[in-house]
Amino acid sequence: MVFWDGYVSDEVMGTFAPIVVYWLYAGFYQLLPPLDNYRLHTRKEEDEKNLVPLLAVIKGVLLQQLVQATVAHLLFLLTSSPTPSVTVVQPSIIVQIVQIVIAMLVMDTWQYFVHRYMHQNKFLYRHIHSQHHKLVVPYAIGALYNHPLEGLLLDTFGGAISYLISGMTARTAAIFFCFAVVKTVDDHCGLWLPGNIFHLFFQNNTAYHDVHHQLPGTKYNYSQPFFPIWDKLLGTYVPYKLVKRPEGGFEARLIKD
């Protein structure tokens, strides 16, 4: 067990830092002014199309994070040294970067196939995954608003598998999980802001995922949260174009043959 500056262990950071980062980053978006000129949907659409109130969304996210924290704590207990005094040697920066890239690819693979199956299986979609799609117009705080079983299968197990396969330490895992959380929140923020680094460096971004939340796009763009690789390999990618609305803001409009 290793401690950050002698106070908090890497395992505790890996468990709770992603939760804190989620609410800080999602809260930042929530506190922004309306920014109508950068929205992918109007505020009227958000009010009319979304089928669940904000308070219920917050409760759902907190429940998922409680499950995630419990699983993460158990995972770190099983994989960390039983002797607290043993010093874990951290790998080089290059090795950590490679491990994070591996974890990103593993998480993408897990989430693509589980996510796609939840759409294709009518029972799973109706009773589990449809909860997430009650937010037809995504927003940042709702990024992890899922049915508890979906949160366990898709996000919690996906994170655990990524951690185990990549071979990263708890300290690297804390960094990776925080990054994954920020990326997931940003993908659901509903804003196309100039200079957003995730829009510049990731094709799988806010507009990409917004297409999936639209009714014509629910059978496409399953990939999350990092790369569109599996969508493109398996024919579930649908291109789109950003069209500026006369009243302000943008629309991610599907381009289908």
Task: List its traits.
257 residues, mainly alpha, two-stranded antiparallel ribbon, 4 strands
Task: Explain what the structure shows.
The chain is mainly alpha-helical. It has helices at residues 10-31, 43-49, 54-79, 93-120, 122-127, 148-166, 170-187, 197-201, 206-213, 229-233; strands spanning 3-4, 8-9, 240-244, 250-254. Strands 1-2 form a two-stranded antiparallel sheet. Strand 1 (3-4) and strand 2 form a beta hairpin. The radius of gyration is 19 Å and the shape is globular.
Strand order of the biggest β-sheet: 1-2
Distance between the termini: 55 Å
Can you count the helices?
10
**Cα-atom radius of gyration:** 19 Å
Binned strand content = 5-15%
Give the overall average pLDDT.
93
Report the count of strand segments.
Answer: 4
Question: What order do the helices and strands follow?
Answer: EEHHHHHHHHHHEE
Characterize the largest beta sheet: strand count, sense, and whether it forms a barrel.
Answer: 2 strands, antiparallel
Alpha-beta content class: mainly alpha
Q: Could you list the spans in which at least 5 consecutive residues all have pLDDT below 50?
A: none
Shape: globular
